[in-house]
Amino acid sequence: MFQTLDDLKPDQTVLVRIDINAPVEDGRAQDNRRFARHAETIAELLDAGHAVCLLAHQGRPGRDTFISLESHAAILADHLHTGVEFVPDTYGEEALAAIESLDSGEVLLLENVRMCEDELPEKEPEVHAESDLVQTLAPLFDAYVNDAYSAAHRAHASLVGFPLVMDAYAGRVMEHEYTANSAIQEREFDGTVTMVLGGTKAEDLIPVIERVDDTVDRFCLGGIVGELFLRAAGHEVGFDLAGSELYDHQWEEHGDTIEATLDEYGDRLMLAKDLAYEDEDGDRAEVAVEGIEKETSFLDIGSDSTAAFADRVRESEAVFVKGALGVFEDERFADGTVGVLEAIAETDCFSVVGGGDTSRAIEMYGLSEDDFSHVSIAGGAYVRALTGEPLVAVEALQGAA
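Request: output the structure for the sequence above.
Response:
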């Protein structure tokens, strides 16, 4: 296991890697639940008398979301109720001067670490530990804290290099996410375990089904992934209409695997009985899957499917969710996703809801995070945790311990 904040001595200067990668509008970051979660870790560090310097990323080079972290500092300050100094530099002279002047109880945010040449290449931790980024910053700090669980599957310099040259600890987000998301691999459940899978990427979810075979009793499938499985079952859905590019390329790449998965796990896969679409008046309409002909886009599972999935959830001791069952951002087509989440919230079961979009539905439709055992802010790292694949940043922390 790794060291946590419980093992960190007070009154130190600490370098903290967080993940506040956020939606961008008009060139500025927009608030999301990652800011609030990391603010809890930062506040705990400040209460312990630490001087806190933050490393974070935003977007990738070449994309519209690849912006400075200046607007992120203002959002963090709102959550912390204290000032967050921002410096438009990561490990140059301006950054080093700001770090040197950092006092106990103060917070400094460095510039987007992905603007540094050393950061993005996927390399072995030992190589990253020798990078200019790590070698320049590490001597200025007493300890390194990695709180960026949602990026823990990336072998980037700021995530895996520092634990090899410094005392390294897991922040609270890292600690809690790792514990909850690894539960499907590490905990034993006496009753029924159900997994609800949806979203858009079959390549993410097929390995999950295969890897949790010994733990999960029943899989409920919806979203684009669910429609692809309906296609494999012989129904006239799961293909592109004019102007759509969601299905056919996935079928070409994964159709054989989807059919094989359906053959092997068929009696444990709950597919939708009905699907919802927008009728000519702009209202929600539903049609049974049996005998269906796809003449329009399907945007949600139907009422019978939602009820069946919800019943399955209520019978379960543990429920894991990855991916939305429909286009829940449109209230007309939120019934499947929200209906299943409401059933989980009403049930006394161990529950983990993961995938950024799915967890966002909890907030959008007035559900309380307290009604779930854990709501993950991770995407790729959550999928890897479900399948038991190693997370390189977690391994780096464990090695440091």
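The two ends are 7 Å apart (CA to CA).
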